[in-house]
Amino acid sequence: MSRATNQPQIVILDPISLEAVDKLRKSFEVVDLSSRQRAEQLQALATADCIIVRSRTKVNRELFDGAPKLKVVARAGVGLDNVDTKEAESRSIRVLSTPHAPTTSVAELVLGFMIALARGIGKGDRGIRNGRWLKSELEGSELFGKVLGVIGYGRIGSAVGKLGSCLEMRPLGWDILGPKVVTAPATYTEVNDMLGQADFITLHVPLTDETRRMVNARFLGKMKKTAYIVNASRGEVVDEDALYDALKNGTIAGAALDVFASEPYTGRLRELDNVILTPHVGASTQEAQRRSASDLAEQIERWFEGSR
Ligand code: MLT
Known about the structure:
Layout: E1 9-12, H1 18-25, E2 29-32, H2 38-43, E3 50-53, H3 61-65, E4 72-75, H4 85-90, E5 94-97, H5 103-119, H6 121-129, E6 147-151, H7 155-166, E7 170-174, E8 187-188, H8 191-197, E9 200-203, H9 217-222, E10 228-231, H10 240-249, E11 254-257, E12 275-277, H11 286-307
Parallel strand pairs: 1-2, 1-3, 3-4, 4-5, 6-7, 6-9, 7-8, 9-10, 10-11, 11-12
Helix pairs in contact: 1-11, 5-7
The structure holds D-malate.
C-alpha cells in the first residue's frame, strides 16, 4: 500500500466505535478494512504500524509475517485467545487490550439469559411466531432464592455474582486463584460441590489448556437435572457435542450460549428448544464499545507518544 503521510498507520481489522476512530485520525493514518475478508486484509498490512482487532481476527504468525512494520496489536475487549501473544513478544510487538470495558455489558447479558431460561422467553416467542400459544407449557421459575454458581470470579464473574445477589440469588464462586478472590456476596465453593448445588452455572474463565472443554459430559452429569448453564466467556470452554447430548437427554434443563468453538455458529444445537443462542454479543453494547474504543485509542496514543 503506498503512503501519503509520515504518520504511523493504524489498520482496523474488526469494527470498533467510530468516535474513537475519528479521534485517532488526528494523529494517525487510519485505514478501515473491518468490512473486508481476511485474505484482502492480510495483503494490506505491509505498512501497518498498529492493527485494531476484536475477537474475530486471528492474530497469528500468518498475520505477523505479512506485517513486517507492526509494533502494536490493539485488542478491543477482554480475551486475548485470538492473539498469539508469545509470537508477538518474540517479535517485540506490544499487545494492548481493554479488559475493563465489557464487564457490565457481559454481566447484564448473563442476567438476561438466566431470566430468559427460567421463564422460557425464547420458546414462548418462537411459539407465537409459529402460531402456537404455549402458555400451559411455560410455567417457569423465579431467580429469587436460587443458587448461582459462578466459575471464574474475576471482573465479570464477580459482577454477575453481585447482580444475582441483588435479586436475592445465592451466589457461589470458584476461581483458579482460590478463595481470596471470591468475595462477598459469594461463598467460595469447589467446582464439584457447586455443580451439585447450583440452579444456574455461569462460566467466566479465559480459554486456556485447563479450561478448554472443561464443560464436558462428566461436568454436565454432575449438574442438577433442573439446572441451567450459561456461557458468555469463550466457546471452546464447552464441549458442544456433550452439551447437545445433555440437553437432548434431559441431563440438564437448558443452556444459553453467546460464544461458540467456531463462529459464526451453524451447528446442531440450533435444533433444540431448550437452548438460547446469541451471536457473541456480550460486549456489543453502545456503552461497552464506546468505553473499549476510547480506552484503546488512549493507550495507542500513549504508546506511540512514548516511542517517538
Ligand atoms: C471480548 O473479549 O471482550 C469480546 O469477546 C470482544 C468482542 O465482542 O469481539
